[in-house]
Design a protein that fits this description.
Helices cover 33% and strands 23% of the residues. It has 8 helices and 7 strands, in the order αβαβαβαβαβααβαβ.
Length: 210
C-alpha cells in the first residue's frame, strides 16, 4: 500500500486521506455525506465541484445551510438516475455496509464516476475475531460502535471480501490505505491477509479496468 502525505490541518483523519486521493478542480459526488464535513474539506483544499447525497433530511438541511449542493437520496435506489461518467470521483465513506445491495451500489458508482473512493470498517480485524471467538457475542469496537440490535450496518465485510467484490466487478485497485484502531495509516508494506487481520478500516481508490 502506498504511503500518504502529511496530515492536512486538524480534520478527521480518514477525510484527510480521502482528500489526498482527489485531484484539484474535480467533479465530486459524496454519497451519504452526513453533515458535509468531507465536501467542505474538498472544496477548501482541492477547489472541487462538490455535490452530495444524504438520506436524512436533517443532514441535507445542515449541508444546505453550510452552502453545499446536497440533495436527499438513497444510494440503493437513486444512483441509477445519473448518466455514465458524470463525475470524476464518487465517494462512499463508511456507508457501503449499511446499504441493502452493496454490490449494485458499487457497480453504479463505477458507472457514474471515473474514479471511486470507498472506505469500509473491517470485520476481519483481530479484535473482532477475538470477541467472537472468546466472548461468543457480536463485537463492538471503535469502528463498529453500535450493538447488533441497534446498528445500521446490515452487510458486514472484511478487507478481503471487498477486494474480491471489486475484482468481480472488473475494478482496478489504484491505491489502498489500511488504518489502525486510532484511524492512523499502517505504513508497513504487507500482503492483503495482514491488512485483513490488523487493520480496523481501509480506504480504496478504484477505477474501471479498460
Amino acid at each position: 500500500m502506498k504511503p500518504v502525505a502529511p496530515e492536512l490541518g486538524r480534520k478527521r483523519l480518514d477525510h484527510q486521506l480521502i482528500a489526498e486521493m482527489v485531484t484539484p478542480n474535480a467533479r465530486v459526488l459524496d454519497i451519504g455525506c452526513g453533515d458535509g464535513a468531507l465536501l467542505i474539506l474538498l472544496r477548501e483544499i482541492k477547489e472541487v465541484d462538490a455535490r452530495g447525497i444524504e438520506l436524512s433530511q436533517a443532514g441535507v438541511n445542515h449541508c444546505v445551510a453550510r452552502g453545499l449542493s446536497v440533495i436527499q437520496g438513497d444510494a440503493d435506489s437513486d444512483l441509477s438516475d445519473y448518466p455514465d461518467d458524470v463525475f470524476d470521483f464518487v465517494i462512499l465513506s463508511r456507508t457501503l455496509q449499511a446499504t441493502r445491495r452493496p454490490k449494485i451500489v458499487l457497480e453504479q458508482m463505477l458507472r457514474i464516476g471515473d474514479k471511486v473512493i470507498v472506505s469500509i470498517p473491517n470485520f476481519g480485524y483481530w479484535r473482532i475475531r477475538f470477541q467472537l471467538l472468546f466472548g461468543g457475542r457480536m463485537p463492538v469496537t471503535r469502528g463498529l460502535s453500535s450493538s447488533w440490535y441497534d446498528t445500521q450496518n446490515i452487510h458486514f465485510c472484511t478487507i478481503r471480501d471487498f477486494v474480491d467484490l471489486s475484482k468481480s466487478l472488473g475494478a482496478k485497485i489504484e491505491q489502498a490505505v489500511a488504518l489502525d484502531q486510532n484511524g492512523s495509516p499502517i505504513r508497513v508494506k504487507a500482503p492483503w491477509w495482514f491488512w485483513n487481520l490488523f487493520a480496523e478500516q481501509a480506504i480504496f481508490l478504484l477505477t474501471r479496468k479498460t
